[in-house]
Amino acid sequence: MGLFDGKKGLIFGVANKNSIAWGIAQALHAEGATLGFSYAGEILKKRVEPLAASVGSDFVEECDVTNDDAIAATFAKIADHFGEIDFLVHSIAFAPGEELGGRFHKTSRNGFRIALDISCYSLITLAGHARELMPNGGSIVTMTYYGAEKVTPNYNVMGVAKAALEASVRYLAWDLGKDSIRVNAISAGPIKTLAASGVSGFRKSLNYVGQVAPMGNVDQEDVGQAALFLLSDHATRITGEVLYVDGGYNIMGAPDPTMMDGGEKSE
Ligand code: NAP
Predict the structure, then answer these.
(1) Beta carbons within 8 Å of 166's beta carbon, 6+ residues apart
(2) Which of 8, 53, 156, 226 has fewest C-beta within 10 Å?
(3) Whole-structure pTM over 0.90, yes or no?
(4) Domains within the chain, CATH numbers bracketed
C-alpha cells in the first residue's frame, strides 16, 4: 500500500532530471500517486515527456504561467483528464539573468515585474484554478529559499519575490482553509539546478552552505520526502507554514570556528 494510492495531482516546474520538481515527482510516484506534468516552453517537451512516461504519466501539457489564457486552457485539459485532483506542486521561479547579481539598487522595474509575476503571482492563480478541482479539499506545496528572509548576496530581486511568495502562502492558507485546502512552502537549501545556476556565485554559495549547515547540503530526494509529508494526510491541519529542508543552515548564527582562519579546533 502506498501513501498516495488513489491520489492524483499536478506538478508544475519540471525542466529536467535535476529539477527539484522531479525529485518530488519521484517520491510521489514511489508512493503510488497518479501524476500530471506541466512545463514552461516547447523546448522542454522532449525532456519532460520521457521523464513523465517513466513514472507512468500520460498527461504532459505546456503552460507558460505568465499567460492567463494558457493557464485556463491547461486546467480545462486537467479537468477533462483527471476530473478531481488531490494535490498541486508549484516549483516555478524566474528572474532575468541580469537581475541575479550585482548592485540590488539597480533592479529594473521590468525585472521586478517579471520575477514577482512568474515566481509569486503564478502560485496564487494556479491555486485558484486547482481549488475548482479539489471539492473535497487538497494540499498545495511551493518552493522557497532562505533569501526571502535574510540577505543572500546576488539573489537580489528573487529574495523579494520569495518573501512575497511566503506571504502569499499564508494568505492562501487562510483563504483556502475554508475549502479544506492546505498551502505550505518548503525552504530548500541550495541545490545545483538550471534555475540555481543563473544566480551569480551559486557554486561558492553551495560550498559555503555545505560547510556551515549542521547536516551539509541537501538534494532533490530530501526535498521530495518533505513534500511527500506536506502533501499527505500525515500533515492534516498543517497549513501556511514554511518548512526548512536545508540541513539546518537556517539555525546557524555563525560558521563553526574551525572554518575560520586561525579558529580553534572543536572536539
Ligand atoms: P529548475 O529545474 O530550473 O526549475 C524551475 C522551473 O520554473 C523550470 O521548470 C522553469 O521552466 C519553470 N518556469 C520558469 N518560468 C516559467 C514560466 N513562465 N511558466 C512556467 N514555468 C516556468 O530549478 P529548481 O531549482 O528545481 O527550481 C524549482 C523551484 O525551487 C523554484 O521556485 C526555485 O526558486 C526553488 N528553489 C530552488 C533552490 C535551488 O537551490 N535550486 C533552493 C530553494 C528553492 P524553464 O526552464 O522553461 O524556464
Answers:
(1) 144, 148, 185, 242
(2) 53
(3) yes
(4) 8-245 (3.40.50.720)
What does DSSP say about strands 60-62 and 87-90: parallel, antiparallel, or unpaired?
unpaired
How far, in Å, is the centroid of ligand 1 from the Cα of 107?
A: 20
Q: Whose CA is nearest to atom 21 of ligand 1?
A: 40
User: Rounded distance, CA 129 to CA 127, Å?
Assistant: 5
- Cα distances from 158 to residues 24, 146, 198, 208, in angstroms, run 22, 11, 11, 20
Structure confidence at residue 265 (pLDDT): 52
Q: 171-210 pLDDT, tens per residue?
A: 999 999 999 999 999 999 999 999 999 999 999 999 999 9
Closest CA to 59 of 51, 71, 67, 68: 51
The best mutation among 143, 156, 169, 246 to test binding of ligand 1, ranked by most ligand atoms within 8 Å of the C-beta, falls on 143
Helix, strand, coil abundance in the chain, percent, nearest 5: 50, 15, 40
Q: What's 104's DSSP letter?
A: G
